Amino acid sequence: VNHILSQGVTKFALHMDRAIDANQRETSVGFDRENVVFSPLNLAGTLAVVLLGSGGRTFDEIARILGFEAGVDISGHSEIVHHMFGLLLNSIKFSGDSARTHSSELFSAGSIFVQSGYSIRPEFAAIARDVYKNDIINVDFHQRPAEAQRIINDWVNSKTRGKINSILSEPPYPESKVILASALYFNGEWNQHFFKGATKRKPFYLASGQTINVDMMYNGGEFPFYEDKQLGVKILGLPYKDSDSAITGYSLKSEATMYALLPTATNSNALDDLESRITPEVINSLINKMINSTCIIAIPRMKLSSTLSLNRALQSLGLTSLFTPSEANLGLLSTGLNNAPNPSQSTSDPIIFSRINTDDPDTDTDPITPASTTGTYGVTGKDFSGKKNYFRYKDSEGGYDIQQWDNGVYLEKIRRNIQKREVDLNPEEVKDPRATSSTPFVDHDKNLVKLTGGGRRSKRQNRPIDPGFLRFIQAKGLPSYGLDALRNSANFINPGLYASDVLHKVEIDITETGTVAAAATGVILAKSGGQKIFNANRPFLFFIRHDPSSLILFWGTVNKPTPHY
């Protein structure tokens, strides 16, 4: 499953790169296009949280563009997919003492900013917190938009260690109801520094045929390298220093590597031709064929920045319903506007965010102050009709009897010809997942995954997850919240939320030492017949990948390095 998820993120990166490029072609003036840099992992993590809160067509579209539906029974086991993706994301959060050792740092954070008065489903809040480490923060977009802007920008500044000090140049729309935000911070030092004293102004040849001057950095030594003459590309690996802390479950040689792909052709369409032929399989094949070679390297010193509006790009990939008021379905995120208690607030705060609005902005003219208490999951008994905003329904197709109220839910499996009973879920006690007839929702530490078998399956499901993998997940004792049953219920409520835009901001430095300053080292470069030459003096691609998981952290297309002269 991890392979499917990482391949999905790689495919998503390639599709997003092409979609962003297509949008730039429509809006750019002249032949030369702007640089593009974005974080596929960051975007995928944010969309995964939206997937968590979605249903119907919106759920299908997000699962498809993320590649999660390939080989995974996503509709019936979405919680398992979220758990596995969350574990994969958390596995790459390594950090070292950069001030002392200059080791690499990488971590991500997420937050959900919610308009006061809107209740968040406790199941959604629990998985967002426990799986994706997202915080729930209440803000008042309607009456205090400037304060909401400050809170969000402070969150960005904090989570990126000051690298991105703001994302909102103006207050958010007062009609905004939810902002889904995430931040990815990377601070890496090359395993082998470039020669700072050797950096010189050199020509860079644009696709239009024009020439600019850039600060060209030079390096030499043993680096991963491969040239595919049939594809017409050179690929170079620039490993970052490992962090002091190991990643659980992996034996590491290098945690992160920047891979640069340079077309061997020098014509104006060389990069476009290369991009059109790259697939996840091609990327893996190129990396697998790389060997350490003696190389002479020339790459521009750059400070790359992109602020992207991605709604059009995402729509071109097939995610259309999320931006359409009459079609969006975010019913697992919220039950709508009421006075239900909101999840507890947190002081954590983005790089990407979606502004999510209600279909009718006038519905929030009188915001309701949420109660101060926090929703709980501990319940007992079988009748909760006395709870606030209580409703009950039976999912006859899925075989569930569901009771829900403001801050809780109770799900019971309906067994044919077998009397219903409650079973405390425990890995040691559950011998066969199908033997469990009821799942009481209790506190996180006490609530374990209940895996069901047999019965009808949702029409959206492709094929069941491998039974051996299900047993592995069961042994993990991961919590279950009943989201799949709610999503597939005929009485699933759509609160009328939709996204008006998705903004993404990334800044990254490529310098002699990586992303941190260090003392210069004097080395003399000498050419010989056996050395590989990698001279990035024309448009090229690069991506930074977490090698143990194969997840792509950053993707960049360099058309015109900045700064240039």
From TrEMBL:
GO terms for cellular component: extracellular space. GO terms for biological process: negative regulation of proteolysis. Keywords: Protease inhibitor, Serine protease inhibitor. Residues 357-376 are annotated as: Disordered. One of its GO terms (molecular function) is serine-type endopeptidase inhibitor activity. InterPro entries: Serpin_CS (IPR023795), Serpin_dom (IPR023796), Serpin_fam (IPR000215). PANTHER family: SERINE PROTEASE INHIBITOR 28DC, SERINE PROTEASE INHIBITOR, SERPIN. Belongs to the serpin family. This is Serpin domain-containing protein. It comes from Cotesia typhae.
